[in-house]
Structures are given as structure tokens and as C-alpha cells.
Specification:
Elements lengths: L5 H14 L15 H6 L1 H14 L6 H32 L1
Length: about 90
Amino acid sequence: MLFRDTRDILEVGLPILFWATPVFYSREMAPRLLRPALALNPLSSFIEASRRALLDAQAPSGQQLALMAGWLTVMFGSGLWMFLRQKHRFAEEA
């Protein structure tokens, strides 16, 4: 099966993604060395936009909306590409 190792990768990757997502702290509170890594975290833009809306009562900035749209486009595109590439194998692996 193509996705046999996915479970093992997710068991390591998801906790790292969880702890590297600034939920209870803002990106500005993180050390300067870690800020670029937080910027690369796909969940950070969604959390920051939610924090801005809920805590600051402001709409997300255009940059935040563009970043979220970019992440959504990349994730949807990669998922669609993978599905179209492997859809013939789904029935035999289920």
C-alpha cells in the first residue's frame, strides 16, 4: 500500500505541529530565532487571524487572508493531485 507509513509519519509530525502552533502565545512572544519556523507553520496564519478577530475585534488583514488562501490552495491542490494519481488503487486497498 502506498500510504502504509503515513501513520508512523503522522505520529511524529502532528505533535510537532501541535506544539509549534502559537495558540496561547503570539508569534511576537516567541524568540527571534523561532519566528521564521512559526511563519512556515500552516496553522499559524489561521490561529493569528482567529486571535485577531476574537481578541482584538478586528478583521484579519489582507496579508493574513492571502496567506490562508495560499495554504488552502496548496493543500487542496496536493490532495487533489494525490487522489487523481491513486484513485484506481482505492478500491483494492479499502
